[in-house]
Amino acid sequence: MIDISELSQLCEQLGCRITPECSLREYITFRFGGACRALISVNSPASVCRLISYMKENDVKYGILGRGSNVIVSDEGFDGVILHFGADFAGIEVSGNTIRCDAGALLASACVKAQQAGLTGMENLFGIPGTVGGALYMNAGAYGSEMKDVVVSAEYIDENCELKTIKAEDMELAYRRSFFSGTDRVITSVTMELQSGDPESIKAAMSECMARRSSKQPLEYPSAGSTFKRPEGSYASLLIEQCGLKGLTCGGAMVSEKHSGFVINKGYATCADVLELCEKVSSIVKEKTGYQLELEPVILR
Q1: Catalytic residues
Q2: What domains can you pick out in the chain, each with its CATH number?
Q3: Exposed (0-12), middle (13-18) or buried (19+): which is 226, by Cβ within 10 Å?
Q4: Which candidate, 287, 301, 259, 2, places its Cα nearest to that of 142?
Q5: Which tens digit of pLDDT belongs to each residue from 239-294?
């Protein structure tokens, strides 16, 4: 049982904003989904520790949300509290060749800060629509670069609500997974080390990366980014295209005709539409090619 009044008092003490019965539609890039019992905008590692402790002590279901760019929310919503890592927890500091980001900082903003400081190494990550914390959680990457190429350490809250530091070599960074994936560990900050470079050359590389994304990906529609993980030995988009599934629809969800690796929201998709379409795609690809596709986004329910 969630005592919203008590939780609101705790948030007031911590200086965190709370929104009861908050629709999550505007908090995820897919732009659908129901409401959570309350959404709390966290503002520091200390507030996150205290709030998670409260949830565990009172047996309150909770979830973590950043930009919501790799998340699918149930139509029924989330029967618990969402801790939102957003603008209230988005600091970025540059020192020499090192850039330290709060978990809620946008990855794109970190890339811009690096460029302005003449630091190279993040150009290919520019345009990934998520937070730095979320990017590390799933070891996000694009065009041959991944978070594991630049991260050196991170701070996180462990299962006992204690703030810990971990080095990159201990993060178990692999394709779309990390030491944090599927656990109660919550990333609070990420430190990356880059190389010195020419700001204008870096800016040009970032612009080229964004142009490539715009030309090949359906950025004009809401989506969760790449819908399926890359299966060993092939590519999800290639398999889907080979099976003739571009343009396949379920309700308001459609396999993009621009890039078959994306399931998009045509403007009126529901979670049920997306999951039904993904199941159809997976089933047909399995039947025709033998490959088993796995969803990349996390389902919040």
Answers
A1: 176, 226, 296
A2: 4-88 (3.30.43.10), 90-216 (3.30.465.10), 236-300 (3.90.78.10)
A3: buried
A4: 259
A5: 999 999 999 999 999 999 999 999 999 999 999 999 999 999 999 999 999 999 99
